[in-house]
Amino acid sequence: MNSSGLASDSTRQFAINKQGISALEFDNKGIYLLSVTKSGCLTVHDFESLYCQANDSFSYFGEDERKSEDESKHVLHNSLGRQLDAVRWNLANQDEVACTSMKTNEVHIFDIGYISSEPVEVLKTRRAVTVHGSDIHKGLTDIAFTSDSRLIASDTNGGVNVWDRRMSALPCLELTSNSRSTLNSIKLSMENQMVFGAGRHGIVYMWDLRGGRAASAFQFHKQICHPPVSSWKLSSMLERIGSLKAQSDIVSKEVHSIDFDPSCPYQLAFHLDDGWSGILDIYNFQVTHVHCPPPAWLNGSSTDLLSLRKPSWLATHSIYVVGSSTDNGIHLLDFYPDPSSPCHVDYSPIEDVERPSRMNSRNKQNRFLPLSEGVTACAAHPLNGTIIAGTQLSSLLVVSQRKYSVED
């Protein structure tokens, strides 16, 4: 059987001259790569051109040297002059991209077929006020497209806004939480029915777009509001893991990102402020995997409290790629959905050795790949597994893989 394993075949580095990569995403076919920066640069890169330029430059540039990307190869390059924090492709129309910012209550949608710095559509949240009539700031933190015309965005006020673009530029539905703190990340289930969100208080929320418990829904200023169907505090779930509780002082931490495993749809990965990562099994509602890197103080490093880290899944093998919270590099975590994974809470090295050789043929290990800069966002190519790492210094690091075979 053939299996692909991650290794550092080559790493190329490009500076795109803007401060801090906020988010990266490939389109469905891996033809284009989206990036946004903290200083407001929205770019659509041609992946083949980026990859070829990386290979061409390898013989001329050392691993730690920065090479400016050829901007003439960009499909779209807009400097919008404001902070950008999230970017997504429209699942139903891959000519459309949407971006937003914690500094504004607007989602800007661009058509990459038009060479224009102006969006083709702008969606806004509804005005929110305190009991005293003061405006409540509602910045937007993350975006998701459904397979139809709906767009979803989480906000800094503990809510998720849902727009039906056929109806209005204002939300038709709000998913509420029991908190007014920031939701950093949202994900749709595979069937586009359930929305999962998590953020500052370390809680994962689940909403049903179909309405959930009808009696609990309410209407406010012509907008239907739905509370969560369920929620889970991750620190409480981690405390149930006896071996982990015995070794660690578990406290509630901010969730930077959540994401579904493309090869196992019931595995919801989470990444925490302290660098921990894990899996929430949404069928059994328990944490099944966890990775706990050494704390920052142990090696004298410090975490960057201003940057959210946004990991990515490889398309196969349940490998989770996440930027290190303390070092320059990425962790490649084996989150395979059974106890043979070294991150599984029931993993036993002795039992793993005794498993049949066929079960052990999968390459099972976590790896750390050192890079030249601190990583804030990762994206994995959907077909060949090439990893693009965006950094705090606004470089794009192109990390390729080796292929090897494992005999049955």
TrEMBL record:
Keyword Repeat applies: yes
Gene3D superfamilies the record matches: YVTN repeat-like/Quinoprotein amine dehydrogenase (2.130.10.10)
- Keywords from the UniProt entry: Repeat, WD repeat
Q: Supply the SUPFAM superfamilies for this chain.
A: WD40 repeat-like
Family annotation (InterPro entries): WD40/YVTN_repeat-like_dom_sf, WD40_repeat_dom_sf, WD40_rpt, WD_repeat_multifunction
Query: Record's SMART domains?
Result: WD40
Q: What is this protein called?
A: TRANSDUCIN/WD40 REPEAT-LIKE SUPERFAMILY PROTEIN
Which species is this UniProt entry from? Salix purpurea (Purple osier willow)
